[in-house]
Here is the input.
Amino acid sequence: MKFFRDSDEDVYQRIWSFMSRNPDMMVKNNKEGIEKVRAGDGKYVFFMESPSAEYVTERQCDLETVGGLLNEFQYAIGLPLNSEYRKPINQGILDLQESGVIKRLQRKWWEWGACIDWSPGCYGAIDLTDIAGIFWMLLTGAIVLVLTIGFEAFLGSCIDG
Here is the structure.
C-alpha cells in the first residue's frame, strides 16, 4: 500500500485514493485477497507480488495475472556489515543465475502446468534443456563407438604383428 500512497504517478495516486475511500476493499493477506477475487465475479482486483501471483495462478486455473509489473524488487540475503561471506554468496548466486539453475528451480516449483491446455495443437515450444538427454546419449554412444573401434584396431595390429 505504501507504494501506491507514496507514488508520484497519477494512476497510482488514483488507485490509492480509491483504496483509502473503500477500506472494506482492503485485505489482511494474500489468501484473503485471492478469496475475495474468486467471490467478486470479476469485479475485484487484488495486487500482490509477482512471484506469489505466478505461483498461485499456476495452481488455480480460475485466476490470472494481467498487465506488467508495477514495481519490481529483488530479494536479498541479509549479512552483517563487512561479512566474509558476502563475496562468496554473491558469486554463488551469480553462478546459479548464469548456469540457469535458478530458472530451472523456478520452473520445477512454480510451473506445474496444471492450467495448460494440452489439446492437440496447443503444446508449448520445446527448449534445448528438454531434449539435452538425447544429445548426451548420442555423445556417449559416439565415444563408446570410437573407443571400441580403436581397441579392435589395436588388438588386430597386435595379432597380425
